[in-house]
Sequence to fold (1035 residues):
Amino acid sequence: METVLAPLVGILVAASVYLMLARNLIRFLFGLVLLSNAANLTIFIAGGLTPAMPPLVPEGLARPAEVVANALPQALVLTAIVIGFGLLAFALVLVYRGYRVLGTLDSDAMRFAEPDEIAPDTSRSEGRVP
Amino acid sequence: MNSLILNAATRLLVALMLLFSVYMLLRGHNEPGGGFIGGLIAAIGFALYAMAHGTAAARRALRFDPAAISVVGLGIALLAGLSAALAGDALFTGQWWFAGAIDGEKGLPISTVLLFDIGVYLVVVGAALTIALALEDET
Amino acid sequence: MNDHGLAPGREIAGRGGGTISRGGGFGWLLAIPPAGLAVAFSAALPTVMGGGAVRLAYDWVPSLGVGLSFLIDGLSLTFALLISGIGVLVALYSSAYLAGHNHYARFSVYLLLFMVAMLGLVLADNVITLFIFWELTTVASYLLIGFDHASAKARRSALQALLLTGAGGLALLAGLILLGAAAGSFDLSTILASGDAVRAHQLYLPILILVLLGAFTKSAQVPFHFWLPNAMAAPTPVSAYLHSATMVKAGIYLLARMHPVLGGTDSWIWTLTIFGAFTAVAASVLALRQTDLKLALAYTTVMALGTLTMFLGAEATVAVAAAITFLIVHSLYKAALFLIIGNIDHATGTRDVARLGGLVRAMPVTALAAAAAALSMAGFPPFLGFIGKELKYEGALAIASEPLFVASAAVVANALMVAVAGIVALRPFYGTPSTTPKPPREVPMRMWISPVLLAGLGLTFGLAPSLIADALVQPAVTAILGRPETVKLALWHGFNLPLLLSVLTFVLGLTAYAVHPWLRRHLIAASGRLPMTADQVWDRLLDGVKSLAAMQTRTLQGGRLHRYLFVVFASFALAVGTALFATGAMRVPAGWPDLLLKHWAVTALIAAGAVMAAVASTRLTAICALGVVGVGVALLFVMFGAPDLAVTQLLVEILVVVLVAMVMLRLPGFEQGSTRRIRKLDALLGIAVGAVVTATLLAVVAAPFDRSITAYFETASVPEAFGRNIVNVILVDFRALDTFGEIAVVVVAALGAYALLAGTRRGKRP
Fold:
């Protein structure tokens, strides 16, 4: 199964890199969502896949009776999902705030902190709203 | 959103979701569930309520500021972790008491671990709603 | 505005000499710690004289083999006694020289730090400990050279010393780590015993080069010599200390310490001999050129360091004995002369040799100390300097490889030393008195006692050389050569070649002294024709580094998000891809996987969602595609036994859609923004990164899997943590601290977002 899931993660990463490189920050955010998913899957796959039982101990036993899925990557991924959510929410708000203040979603036009020596070519920044 | 059906349905639905979230929180140590999942369910419930009745109503229903809830949750988790020091263990070591345990009977388990999970629950609810309600306020 | 640190001597002098004697207060207390240490070290003398060594050890970082262990053998004891002994006198002197200075307390702390760092360096029995103290001396010297922080010159000199010796320190660290790897231990005792193995090791040459870089920068060998004359921006007592017993002697100590391990090979002998000889001759010529007394003296230190390096290159017992004896000679006279120049500066207000003369009447005690120190420096009998010089010639002639070269370098350098000794210590005191900025008068006792004692020791040891021969020189030589040696020092060696060379030296030296104004004029004229000095080369180098930094900042961090991310992703793909390729970790899966239909379906679903999200032209399509990916991932979690993850993933997915929907309502457009060509490049980079991630993941899953941590959690979950859901037990019990950190991140993210939104609300309603 790994031989199929590894390329799948590759596709997720490729799509997310492509999206994050776009100048429109909404696309960037979507790329971030995909990257989170790719990272979570990577940890999950690297922890060994077993199409087995969930890591639960049956009532009355001291340890799992049969082979169960690896609990460790699951614990890591679970927090990673929630953190990924926190990051995305923050980034969303940041982009929103940026838009409210600067009036654009074009990352190339957001040059308040690092002004360009040459005036940016604004004719192509279509994210700009009148 | 002004929808009579949504308005009426959410009251019942949100109550059920909150109940379910607490159930997921409490059973988390032994079955799938836990503070993260419970907190997310509760947050979705309140977000739904805010959509149907407005953020002001949702804030009233919450009774506390969501940001305060998340910080209090963090504090509870920290206290749960620090309390291990009282028993002389390393920090964040779970402490257990089995209330009313008579030989054979396990009794009611009370633990700092549960307290910690409650802290996680409150953090997730508070944090998610802080952002959701603040965004919803932006109209 | 009393807080500036003007050249301290001048500042006090401005208030009139009379205030100094009573202004001292309790400053002399600074001399107590070094005095205590000196006494303590003396207690080790009997053991070390008997050929033994004292070893103290504490575990520090046992997992890395780093110990806080100290070794007192002949070599380290010689250094320790010089450091603490001269430390006492320098501290005593400073208490008068800097009396009433606003920052005297800070000065005391720096000076003590400097001393402790240097002591730790010479006593360390672990090369990592040695390195840490080595760096500490660099830091302490930075603070002391830049003590007069209001002066731009002092700041520049301090920074130059820090950067140059710090860079050398980095090379040294690399060298010491390689050395530890070659010798199999970081313990100096072990390394010293495995010299043959190290010399035969294939890493020997890199180790040698790196260690020598460290030693040469610290000990100011040409072409790294220029920081030392600049370092005299420090208060004079610091210069005295830095030039005599500390800092620059660290490199010499390192060379002596590494002699049994790295020495004896052709590369060692030739490198040290050539660099040392060149440094000695070049520095003595430069010393002659100066008119500032302190600067001239600073160059003679460079000369002494060159001589020491040259002799430490040798194998012959007498050459090494010459190095150690000269080390002691030099420490004594150099500290004395710096303090004397401090006195002259203090009393007259100038250090310019052309403006000084006939001070002997006004400052008889200082003049006496100066004469004694200068005679030792010039190598006249019966001073210790004479014994040192005779030994140097004997050692030079005993060097098997190139006796003529070493001996002639030594003669030239020593002859010029005679001339400089005359210029520095005799000219200001004799001849016609000249008018100085201030009328000269003798300095108070606390300022002449130290130079008098130091110069007196030079005479005492010269008359009774067995005092240091048995106690210091012989044990140190034994430690350096790693075999028991007998060293005898005597004033009179009989009529032999060294004596002849001594006479030649005096003749040449006195001639040079006689014609030195003429020599100096020509030297200044000649140096004016040089394209640039080493100091200027250094400035060019720093400018180059700065413009390189500015250029790469402009290129890599031009302020465009696209550029930043492109660089980051491209570096990632390149670095990881190269590593995968170079280490041969790349794995191509064998055979076609045998999968169920549902696995294929979910995989296809996620892949289609990802591609769709990337190419979607409307936001709604993209959001739906992201939803498909999220649900698909949740399904994967279900299939592989992770119900907790699946539930969490779905719930987060819902919340994400809610939040994204809220934001999207208030944001415009979804246009790409980039040109078609850039989009193509982006897509190519995306595919490259994806391919690298795929290859990495395949390599990871192909490696054998260690399940021992999971196995522990599985067996401990119920008995120890009373929980049957192992994932949850890990989260809230076994790894609760991690979880705590993670929920703290969530809280911070929420509060940050909240603050950002609060800002827009305020902005909306002004």
